[in-house]
Amino acid sequence: MRLPPGFLDELNNRLSLSQVAGRKVIWDTRKSNQAKGDMWAPCPFHQEKTASFHVDDRKGVYYCFGCHAKGNAITFVRETENVSFTEAVEILAREAGLQIPERDPGAQERADRRATLAQVTEAALGWFRLQLKTGAGTPAREYLAQRGLDGAALDRFEIGYAPAGRNAAFQALRDKGFDAERIVATDIARQPEDGRAPYDAFRDRIIFPIRDVRGCCTGFGGRAMAAGAQAKYLNSRETALFSKGRALYNHGPAREAAGKGQPLVVAEGYMDVIALVRAGFKATVAPLGTAITRDQLRLLWRMADEPIIALDGDSAGRGAAWRLIDLALPLLEAGKSLRFALMPQGQDPDDLIRAKGSGAMQALLEKAHPIVALLWQRETDGKTFDSPERCAALDKSLGRAIGQIRDTSIRRHYGQAVNDLRWQFFRAQRQARGQRTPPEAAPAPATKLSVLAAGTLSETDLRIALILATLANYPVLIDQFETDLGRLAPANPDHARLAARLLSSQARKAEALQKDIIAANLGQTLENIRSLGHVRIQPFLCAPGDEALAELCLAEEFAKLAAHRGIDHELAEALEDIETTEDDPRLSWRLKQAIQTRHNADHPALPDTTHASEGREALSARLKDLVESRAWEKKKR
Question: Do the domain assignments include residue 290?
Fold first, then answer.
C-alpha cells in the first residue's frame, strides 16, 4: 500500500498508543504515570508477571525490556491481531475516523514535489536570515533588540528579515537555480493575475520560520515593520507544504520538552513563544495568527493531557478563550481537557515576564483555571440576575453549552460543577444585597423546635455524614458508589456541596481529594463532619487503611438510607390515605404495623385506633407528627 505523504503522521497524531495497547494489556498503576504518557504493563508478547512492557505515549513507541519487542501503533496492531500492514492501517484509521485515500500512482510524484518545495523554503530561510544582518535589516535588528532578543536568540529561533523590494526574495531564489513555478508554489512569491512578474509575499517584515514536527520548514510568518501596514502579521498561504490550521509554531521542540514533563503552554503569537521559551517554559507553542482549530487541538492533546492556554489579558484574549471553550467541549475525553491562564489586564506573556520575571509567569500557570470556571465566567460576566427570567436564561445557556459534551460521564460532572458554582454565585449575590441565604435563614416559628434548628442531627443526617467522611478518606470507592452518591440529596446545603465536590473531583487519592475539597472552600465542612462522635468512632476512619471495611460500611449505609426513605414515602402516602378514606379498620391496622416495624419498641406507642372512632383522629394526628418531626430518628446526644 502506497499512502500519501503525511497520512501516517496524521494517523499517529490522532491516536494514543496507550489507548491502542490498553485493549490488550492491563496497566500497572503503581509504575505508570499517565500524565507524562509513561505507561507500564506485563508484556502481551511473552508470558510474564512483572511490568516490563513500556509505552512512551508522547513519542508513540513501545519497548519490552524482557523480550525486546518494539514498534509503534501499527506494529502493535500487526503483532497482536496477526494482520498485515495494510489491515493494521485500516483498523487504526477506522478508530481515528480517517478515510484511507484511494491508491494513487501519483503519490510518489507528489512526495518528490514536496521534497523539492522544502528545498525552496530552506533556501529562502537562509536568505531571509542573511538579510537581517545587512544595512537594510538595521531597523528590524533594533526592534528585536528592544524586545530583548540578542544575537543568540536570533540564531536559536532562526529569525530573518524580508527587505522592502518588490521581488528581492524571488530574484535571489531564481539566482540560486530554483524555477519560478516552485517559488510561487511555496508562497514565497505570488503571481499577479495580469501576468506581470511575480512579487514577494513578504516585504519589509521580520520573518519567523514555521517548521513541522519533523523539523521541515513549511512556511513563514512575517511581522510588518511599517506602522501603517495593512496586516501586522502575515502567514504563508495554503500550499502543498503548509496548512495554517494544522501547524503550530515551535511544535517540534515543544513536543520534546512536554515529553520530559514540562507543562505545555499555548500562547497567542511568535514573540510570546520566544519570550516563554527563553524564560524556561520550553514546551510552548502558538497557533498561527488565528483561533485554535480542531486539528491543532488534537495536536496539543497528543503532546499533553491538559495544555494551558495563556491568553492576553484584554477583550480579544477573553474572546479567544470563549470561542475555544465551544470548540473543546464536544471533543473532551476522560483525562483530556484544557486549563486557562489569563494574563493581567493589558499584558501578554512577554510583557509579564519582562516586568516581573519568570516566577510571575510560573505562578500564573499554576493557578490556571479549568474549562468549567471559564464557561461560568463567560455566561455570568457583566450580567445581572435579579429576576427569575434572567436566572432561567442563565440555566438555559449553561445547559446548551454543557449539552455539547458527548461523553456522558464528563457531561454529568460538568452539571454537578456548574450547580456548585451556581449555588456559590447566588449565595454571594444575596449576601451582597443584604439578604439571608438559605443556610442562614431565620427559622420560622413552626420550625424553631425542629431537630436541625435545635442543633441536633437526624439519623439520616448522621448516615449521610458518615458516607461523606468515608468517601473523603477512601476516594478510590467513589466510582463504585457513584450512582448512590448522586442520589444522596443531603438536606444540609453544605453536605450537598461536599457530595457534589466528591462526584466532580477526578482525584482518587485521599491527599489529592483533600486539596480539591479545600480549594472548593469545603475544608471546614469536612472537618465538622469528622468531628461528629458517630463518625469519629469508626475504626476505618480512626486509622485509615481498611478499605474492605469502609466498602462494607458504605454498602450498608446506602442500603439503610434507601430503606428509610422508602418508609418515609409510605408514611406520607398513608397520611394522605387516612385523611381521604372512610373508616377502615384494616387501614388503621396496616399503618400501625408499618410504623411499629419501622420504629420497633424504642418509640412512643401509638393510640389504639381499632375500636374507637376518636382513635382515627388520634392516628391521623400522630402520623402527621411522625412525618413532620421525624420522631423516629435518633437525636445527637
Answer: no
Residue 617 placed within a domain: yes
Does residue 355 lie in a domain region? no
Contact by Cβ (8 Å): 170, 181:
no
Rounded CA separation 320/290 (Å): 9
pLDDT for 449 beyond 60: no
Provide the 10 A C-beta neighbour count for residue 159.
22
Residue 596 belongs to what domain range? 450-637
584 and 610 belong to one structural domain: yes
The tally of CA atoms less than 13 A away on the side-chain side of residue 252 is 11
Grid coordinates in use for 234? 502575515
Cα–Cα distance measured from residue 625 to residue 627, given in angstroms and rounded to the nearest whole number: 6
pLDDT at position 479 = 87
Strands 233-235 and 217-224: antiparallel
Q: Kindly tell me if the per-residue pLDDT of 168 is higher than 70.
A: yes
Q: Which of 38, 69, 96 is the last residue of a domain?
A: 96
The CATH number of the domain holding residue 158 is 3.90.980.10
Residue whose C-alpha is closest to residue 450's, from 595, 604, 624, 635: 635
Answer yes or no: is 514 within a domain: yes
Distance CA 337, CA 257 (A): 19
The CA distances from residue 522 to 491, 517, 530, in Å, are 16, 5, 13
Is 116 within 8 Å of 107 (Cβ atoms)?
no
Sequence-separated (6 or more) residues with CB below 8 Å from residue 50: 42, 66
The reply to whether 580 and 494 lie within a common domain is yes
Which set of grid coordinates corresponds to residue 579? Answer: 385523611
As for how many domains the chain has, the answer is: 3
What is the separation, in whole angstroms, between the first and last Cα of the chain? 78
Mean pLDDT computed over 59-71? 88
Give the model confidence (pLDDT) of 16-63 as tens digits.
888 888 888 889 888 888 777 789 999 988 878 888 999 988 888 999
Q: Return the C-alpha cell found at 321.
A: 478563550
CA distance 260 to 581: 75
Considering 2-6, 100-104, 428-432, the range whose residues carry the highest mean pLDDT is 428-432
The band of 552, judged by pLDDT with boundaries at 50, 70 and 90, is confident
